[in-house]
Amino acid sequence: MTGPARILVVDDTPMNVKLLEGVLAGHGYAVVTAPSGAAALERVRADQPDLVLLDVVMPEMSGYEVCRRLRADEATRLLPVIMVTALDPLTERVKGIEAGADDFLSKPINQAELLARVRSLLRIRALHRELEELNRTLEQRVRDQVAQLERLGRLRRFFSPQLAELIVAGDTEDPLKSHRREITVVFLD
User: Which element (helix H / strand E) includes 9?
Assistant: First the structure.
C-alpha cells in the first residue's frame, strides 16, 4: 500500500462524520466522506478506499443495502466494511453480518476500539492484496512453463530429447528458427 490508507466514512449526520474524520485523520489515515448510501457507492468507485465505515440508518438506502451491493460487485467484494449504529447492537450485528459486514461498532464510538478494528481490517486487506499478487505471479509462471513444455514437445519431434532440452534452455541456437542469409551477387564483365 502506498501512502496512508484511505477510509470512506459514510453517515448522514455531519457531526458523526466530523468526529470519525477527526479521529482517523489524527492517526494518519486519508479520509473521504459520503452523506448517503448512493453517494457512498459513487465514492467507492471514484476513490477506491481501503476500508468503509458505514452508518446503518440513513435515508433512501440503508447501510445494509450499501454493504450488500458492495459484496455483490466483484471489484469490491473483499473491501472491508465496518457497520456503525446506535441501534440495539445484538439485533443489528446479526443483520450486519448477514449483509456482509466484516465488523460492527456501536455508537457512541470508543476511539481505541475503532482504531484497533480499523488496523486489524487494514492488515487483512493488505494480506489479501499480497495473496492476489502472489497468485498473479504464480499464474504467469505456470503459463510460461506450459509454453516451454509445448515448445519442447514440438522440438522433440525433430531432434533428440537432449538437443531439444538444450534449445529450450537457451544453451544452443534453435535450428527451427528461420535464418535469412544475404547473398551478394557480383557480375564480372
Answer: strand 6-10
Distance in angstroms (rounded) separating the CA atoms of residues 54 and 57: 9
Output the DSSP codes for 131-177: HHHHHHHHHHHHHHHHHHHHHHHHHHTTS-HHHHHHHHHTSS--TTS
Alpha-carbon distance of 83 to 43, in angstroms, equals 17
Element (H, E) at 72: helix 63-72
pLDDT tens digits, 76-122: 999 999 999 887 777 788 888 889 999 999 888 899 999 999 999 99
pTM of the full predicted structure? 0.72
Tens-place pLDDT, residues 124-174: 999 988 998 998 989 999 998 888 888 877 777 777 777 777 777 776 665
Give the Cα separation of 10 and 33 in Å (integer): 6
Nearby residues of 5 by Cβ (< 8 Å), 6 or more positions away: 29, 30, 50, 51, 122
What cell does 127 get?
Answer: 494480506
Q: 3-class DSSP state for residue 40?
A: helix
